């Protein structure tokens, strides 16, 4: 499948989704929204893909929504123009608009993000909803919504669950005038590592390869336990996590792990 606004590649059990509108700083268009969603599901349903990496081409990960395609009224945010559907014909249109966000709460496979430069507006969703994020030394993070007359909604709701509240408020209320460096983002825990720009993708694939040395079904169950458990009270989150543990315990890989350890060899995971 070919795409207009993204690049999609699978190698060594890693699917890479690259936002590919460098002349627009990878601003999210309606077409890109659809293609990110389609590529995410393609990777999720590919048995040979164990981990997903998202990055951007050029000097930005994502500069946010494409201002040229912004609707003139709030009622158009989930319009059929985005998905090619009849108005309010699917849950995607009733839900909060996701823009750059993969359907991360409905996916099992870990999603990694390599921030290669500017990360703004809806681009921040790629940090708050992916599972491991690293950034190049020249990366910058900011949210321009209030500076162009728009409420910073979903993006800041998510960011306020990752950063200390007063920091999230500073980013949200100062708009384009408050820019966070990669080092500052690392110190605050927004990203987990800062690397030289020319080493970014090499390091990202090293991390993906390490993740893929582990049992893939156990990785997915662990990821979902954490992701879905965050919106639940502790007890219910523990019960949900235990249900995932029991399901994975029935897999062939769950037998292979202890057996390979006893035989003193590397495990041969099959994701089944």
Textual characterization of the structure:
This protein is of the alpha/beta class and 272 residues long. It is 38% helix and 15% strand. The longest helix is centred in the C-terminal third of the chain and has 16 residues, at 234-249. It is built from eleven helices and ten strands. Strand 1 (6-11) and strand 2 form a beta hairpin. The chain folds into two domains: 6-211, 2-enoyl-CoA Hydratase, Chain A, domain 1, CATH 3.90.226; 216-262, Orthogonal Bundle (Lyase 2-enoyl-coa Hydratase, Chain  A, domain 2), CATH 1.10.12. It has helices at 30-44, 80-83, 91-94, 125-128, 154-159, 165-174, 182-187, 200-211, 216-229, 234-249, 252-262, and strands spanning 6-11, 14-19, 51-56, 60-62, 111-115, 118-120, 132-136, 140-142, 180-181, 193-195. The chain is globular, with a radius of gyration of 19 Å. A six-stranded mixed β-sheet has the order 1-2-3-5-7-10, with helices on both faces.
Supply the key terms:
11 helices; 272 residues; Lyase 2-enoyl-coa Hydratase, Chain  A, domain 2; 2-enoyl-CoA Hydratase, Chain A, domain 1; 4-stranded mixed sheet; alpha/beta
């Amino acid at each position: 499948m070919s795409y207009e606004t993204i690049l999609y590649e699978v190698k060594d059990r890693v699917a890479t989704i690259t936002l590919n509108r460098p002349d627009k700083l990878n601003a999210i268009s309606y077409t890109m929204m659809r293609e990110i969603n389609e590529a995410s599901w393609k990777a999720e349903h590919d048995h040979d893909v164990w981990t997903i990496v998202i990055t951007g081409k050029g000097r930005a990960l994502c500069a946010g929504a494409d201002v040229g395609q912004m609707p003139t009224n709030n009622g158009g945010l989930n319009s059929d123009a985005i998905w090619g559907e009849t108005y309010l014909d699917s849950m995607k249109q009733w839900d909060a608009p996701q823009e750059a966000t993969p359907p991360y709460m409905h996916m099992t496979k870990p999603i990694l993000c390599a921030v290669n430069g500017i990360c703004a507006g809806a681009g921040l969703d790629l940090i708050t909803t992916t599972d491991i994020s690293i950034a190049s030394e020249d990366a910058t993070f900011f949210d321009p919504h209030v500076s162009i007359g728009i409420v910073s909604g979903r993006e800041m709701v998510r960011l306020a669950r990752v950063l200390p509240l007063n920091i999230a408020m500073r980013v949200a209320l100062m708009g384009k005038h408050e820019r966070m460096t990669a080092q500052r983002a690392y110190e605050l825990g927004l990203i987990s590592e800062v690397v030289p720009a020319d080493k970014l993708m090499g390091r990202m694939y090293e991390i993906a390869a390490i993740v893929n040395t582990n049992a893939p079904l156990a990785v997915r169950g662990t990821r979902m336990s954490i992701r879905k458990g965050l919106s639940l009270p502790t007890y219910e989150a523990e019960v949900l996590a235990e249900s995932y543990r029991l399901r994975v315990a029935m897999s062939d890989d769950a037998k292979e792990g202890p057996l390979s350890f006893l035989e003193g060899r590397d495990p041969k995971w099959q994701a089944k």
